[in-house]
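Lab notes, practical 5.
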Amino acid sequence: MDLNYAPEDLAFRDTVRAWLAQNLPADLSRKVLNHRRLQRDDYLRWHRIVHRQGWVAPNWPVEHGGTGWSRVQQHLWEEECARAGTPPILPFGVNMVAPVIIAFGSDAQKRHYLPRILSCDDWWCQGYSEPGSGSDLASLKTRAVRDGEHYIVNGQKTWTTLGQHADMMFCLVRTDPDARKQEGISFLLIDMKTPGITVRPIITLDEDHEVNEVFFDNVKVPAANLVGEENRGWTYAKYLLGHERTGIAAVGRSKRELAFLKRLAARIRKGGRPLIEDPLFASKLASLEVDLMALEITVLRVISQESKRKAPGPEASVLKIKGTEIQQALTELMVEAAGPLGLPFDPDYLEGESEHSAGGDDDAAPLMPYYFNYRKTSIYGGSNEIQKNIITQMILGL
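Output from the prediction step:
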C-alpha cells in the first residue's frame, strides 16, 4: 500500500492552499487559531464562501452537488482547512443527514433538502440522545404515533448541539413500542419551528451555550418527512454514525493544535529555560506526537480502502477512540504548559468583545475553557467504551 501522495494530489493541495489564502477572512482565522468562540454568523459566513466555490460537500455524489474529488483529495482539503484555521463546515447537514437522505430518502426529499443543505438555508441539528438513552441509544423513548398524514411526536432529546440555531432536526423516534428495541425506531425530519417544540439551553463547564435539551409536546410532523421505511431507522442511524465517527478523528486539527502547543511551550519558561526543553514535558510531547503520526497513517489506510468504494466500517471506531484521546491529551498538555496563566476566565475575550485577555496572556486565556469543552469528545458520536465493544465484536470476533 503506497501512502505517499501522487503528484496530482500535491498539485491539488497547492490549489486549495492558494484558494484559502485568498478567501479565508482573517478575522475568522484568528478566532479559530486563538481558540476563541465562534458565533452563528461566523459559521454561516464561511459555509457560504465555500458554497460559492462549490466545495461544501466533497463527499457527495456529483449529481447532488459534490465535487468529484477523490477520497485523498477530500482528506487534503480537510487538512488544509485545519492548517489555515477555517471555521468547520458544521457536520449535521452536510456530513450526517445528507448521506442518509442520498442513500435512503425519497426523490422529493432529495430535491427539497439537499440544495438547502448545500446553501445552508437550513441549519440542522441531531436528535439522537435522550436522558437515559445515550450510549444505549436503542433504548430511546421519544414516541411518534401515526395519525393520518402526520406523526404525533412526544418526548425529549438532550445534548442537542447548536439546536438553538437550528431550522431542522433529524430525529430518531420510536414508532413500534412492541418491537425489539432496535427494530421499532424510525428516522424523521422535523421542522424546529413546529408548534410544541421547546429548546432549553444547557450551560456547560466552560460557561458556553453549545448544547440544549429539546422537548416535543404533541408535535405534528408530516408523514412525508419519514426517511426510508418505518421502523428501519436504526439501520439509517448506524449508517450515519459510521460517517460521523470517521470525521471525529480530526487529524488535521490535532496537527495544528500540536504546533500551537509547541509554540506555547517554547515561549513559557520553567526553571529559567523554555518549558519545551524540560525533559519530562518534552517526553510527554514526543509521545503524543508519535501517537498522532500513527493515527494519521491509520487514517490514510482507511482512506485507501474507501477509495475502493468501501463504506466506513468498524475501523471508524478505532479512529474515533484514538482521535478523541489525542485531542483530549493535547488540551491537557496545553493546560499543563499554561499553568497559572490559564486560570483567569475572561468571557469577553472568548466571545470576541475585547481584543486582549484581562489575564495578560492571550494564548493561555482560552485554554481552560478549551480543556473543559474537549471532555465531551470521548462521549459524543458513541462513547469510546461503546466503540471498544464494537471493535471487540466486529474486528476481533469476540
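Observations recorded by the TA: The CA atoms of residues 224 and 376 lie 34 Å apart. The mean pLDDT is 92.
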